């Protein structure tokens, strides 16, 4: 559960849900992109602080691997995109399906590496408890962020509140699993550490999708109420 708290925000899910509701999409995109960039440095530090031993963890090796697997491909992709942008817009390669397949293979190999160990111990009761805790944590954080962003002295608009609720509670599986594989490379219980994050990711998408109609109706009604309160009152004739 601590590993989930250390994870950066996702790049896509919070933006998609914010757009579906009609919230502040620009703020959601900025938060997701900037948060993912900060997560490259902050997430490993938090993982090592809460779960690692400073005397035995190779900081240089970890950050060099993260730099080569996350930062370098991102930089190369941005450079190459400038030269093949027109071709990409014409052909529209299925990058979404490719990234989903790669992510699925990463998750699959993570579990294969760990469950090949005959000493692994994961009972069904613990798994059920983790699922319950994850859903409870997700719903509690969404409710708290909603209360925080809608308090009386808040300057956030209803569209801002939508972005805050989704962006501040979502965690990235795409960046999270590779980081865990690097930071805890060779650790026999790596998949047990990964289980809460693997549950949290579909939970945030499921809960977000179910709440889209409710949040959208609240935002529309809230915007109408604010618009009415800001309209100048007509002068009263005597």
From TrEMBL:
The chain crosses the membrane at residues 28-50, 62-83, 95-116, 128-149, 161-184, 190-212. Signal peptide: none annotated. Gene3D superfamilies: 1.20.1530.20. Keywords: Membrane, Transmembrane, Transmembrane helix. The keyword Zinc does not apply. Coiled coil: none annotated. This is NTCP7 protein.
């Amino acid at each position: 559960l601590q590993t989930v708290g250390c994870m950066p925000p996702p790049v896509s899910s919070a933006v998609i849900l914010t757009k579906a509701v009609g919230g502040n999409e620009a703020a959601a995109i900025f938060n997701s992109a900037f948060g993912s960039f900060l997560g490259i440095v902050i997430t490993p530090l938090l993982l090592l602080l809460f779960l690692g031993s400073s005397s035995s963890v190779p900081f240089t090796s970890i950050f060099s691997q993260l730099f080569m697997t996350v930062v370098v491909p991102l930089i190369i992709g941005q450079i190459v995109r400038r030269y093949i942008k027109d071709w990409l817009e014409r052909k529209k390669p299925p990058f979404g399906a490719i990234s989903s397949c790669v992510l699925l293979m990463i998750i699959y190999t993570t579990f294969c590496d760990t469950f090949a160990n005959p000493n692994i111990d994961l009972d069904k009761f613990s798994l059920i408890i983790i699922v319950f805790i994850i859903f409870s944590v997700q719903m509690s954080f969404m409710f708290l962020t909603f209360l925080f962003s809608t308090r009386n002295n808040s300057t956030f608009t209803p569209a801002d509140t939508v972005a805050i609720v989704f962006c501040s509670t979502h965690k990235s599986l795409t960046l999270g699993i590779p980081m865990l594989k690097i930071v805890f490379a060779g650790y026999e219980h790596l998949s047990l550490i990964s289980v809460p994050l693997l549950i949290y990711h579909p939970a945030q998408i499921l809960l977000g999708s179910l709440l889209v109609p409710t949040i959208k109706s609240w935002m529309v009604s809230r915007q109408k109420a604010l618009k009415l309160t800001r309209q100048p009152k007509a002068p009263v004739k005597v």
